[in-house]
Amino acid sequence: MEKFSSKLIEFFVSNDLIKNEDKELYEYAVNIILSSLIHIATVMIIGLCFNLFIESLVFYFSFIAIRKFAGGYHAKTPVRCYAFSVISSIIMLCLIKYANSVGNIFTYLLIIFELLCVVLIILMSPLDTENNPLNSYEKKWYKTLAVLISVCIFIISLFCVLTELRNIGYSLICGVIMSTLVLLMRKVQITN
After folding, report:
1. Residue 137: count of CB within 10 angstroms of its CB
2. Is residue 172 within a helix (H) or strand (E), and if so which, with residue range?
3. pTM of the entire predicted model
4. Where are the transmembrane segments (predicted)?
5. Residue of 95, 86, 83 whose CA lies nearest to 170
6. What integer pLDDT is reported at residue 8 of this predicted model?
7. Quick check: 98 pLDDT over 80?
8. What CA–CA distances, in Å, run from 83 to 36, 43, 61, 63, 87?
9. Pick from 108, 110, 105, 126: which is nearest to 179 by CA?
């Protein structure tokens, strides 16, 4: 992917569409965009395989919405990141399928667990990385957004689970759970 990004930007530089001094910035941007597109496409394919296409997208975007501001674990290589993303998507879609096939007690346990996850997000976020350290203003702003988004997703998921939109509610719950998991993994990473 990096080679493709580099060649694409080199084409633009050679045709004087991008300044040579901006080359690295554009390569990085193209690399991030391509990586995001591959992740989204993979989530969509996995969703189709599970016959949970909409649910896979709801899970992914609720997870990304919280993660963007709460932070969390970052894999050391793009391949590890991709593998972690695929495995976590499969596990969460299995959880959605399972939740849909069992009784209400499991649903109530999931809601309680999601509430616990929201509390953990409130307490731990944001967790920055060495590559993207946050200043004090950004930390306050990111925390506010992480809390607001996770609380809103909790309320929406509660509404969905208690109505006819159960799978959407389960998908939102899984997004909150996954966001909390990567936050906890980052917390462990920082302390070690």
Report:
1. 8
2. helix 166-191
3. 0.87
4. 28-61, 81-99, 105-124, 145-162, 168-185
5. 95
6. 65
7. yes
8. 14, 12, 18, 16, 6
9. 126
How far, in Å, CA of 167 to CA of 157, rounded?
9
Per-residue pLDDT tens digits for 106-135: 889 999 999 999 999 999 989 887 777 888
pLDDT at residue 184 above 90?
yes
Query: For 72, phi and psi rounded to 5 degrees?
Result: 145, -170
pLDDT at site 15: 66
AA identity, residue 31: N
Q: What's the rounded Cα separation, in Å, for the pair 48 and 166?
A: 18
Of residues 71 and 2, the one with the higher pLDDT is 71
Q: What is the rounded CA–CA span in Å between residue 1 and residue 20? A: 20
Inform me whether the pLDDT recorded for 17 exceeds 70. Answer: no
The domains of the chain are located at 1-49, 57-191
> Using alpha carbons only, what angle is made at residue 82 by residues 41 and 98, rounded to the nearest 5 degrees?
75
Residues 6 or more apart whose Cβ sits within 8 Å of residue 65: 149, 153, 175
